[in-house]
Amino acid sequence: MALPKIELPAYxxxxxxxxxxxxxxxxxxxxxxMLLMAVESRVQSEIxxxxxxxxxxxxxxxxxxxDKMPFFDVDxxxxxxxxxxxxxxxxxxxxxxNVVDGETCGQEFKAEMDIGKVELIKQDVSNDIKLGPAAGxxxxxxxxxxxxxxxxxxxxxxxxxxxxxxxxxxxxKNGMHSxxxxxxxxxxDFVEGLTEENYKKLEDYIDKFPTVAAxxxxxxxxxxxxxxxxxxxxFDFFI
Length: 239
Ligand SMILES: [Zn+2]
What we know:
By secondary structure, the chain is of the alpha+beta class. It has seven helices and 13 strands. It has a four-stranded antiparallel sheet. A hairpin with a 6-residue loop joins β12 and β13. It binds zinc ion.
């Protein structure tokens, strides 16, 4: 006879972009191992496939398509699940940068970060970017796969790649031109053909993408400075 299956707990979580509630279960030990191996491989395609698969496994109801969600929804869900699966509290090392009498304190100390209380930081930015009298670009948030693939590109190509992947449509007096009707190279030519000034407007949009962050509040044991740190690189937890 097969061994009984021990039921996994279920939690409710709100998807940041839609405000919809879904039910999820934590990662199993096997899934945690798969994630660890993927992150250690540093191969982005491996990380994308594994994160997508594990998140899909953990969604108990609701028809959610991980590929269609904006990247920060996946970051948020991933961090939430990790908090429920492994530990809500993670130890991080901080270095005090407070200046006392003209000298940087420099004290290293440990602090606790509560990943059960991550938040989405959203900046006020319009997705309709005017580039001329009757012309402009409507932007959208790229998905998780796009944002991970960026990591494999040379530094100089990263921003343009994200901008190109964030175009929903270009408009002018003749109407709307959806990204779906153009190749990536055509979109890239369009972006690289802009003036510096217009390019900066698109750059500003992607620089202000929402980010998932955890707050750390800690007091330096040496100088007593109160640190308020926002932590955003959650993949560090694994390594
Ligand atoms: Zn200090």
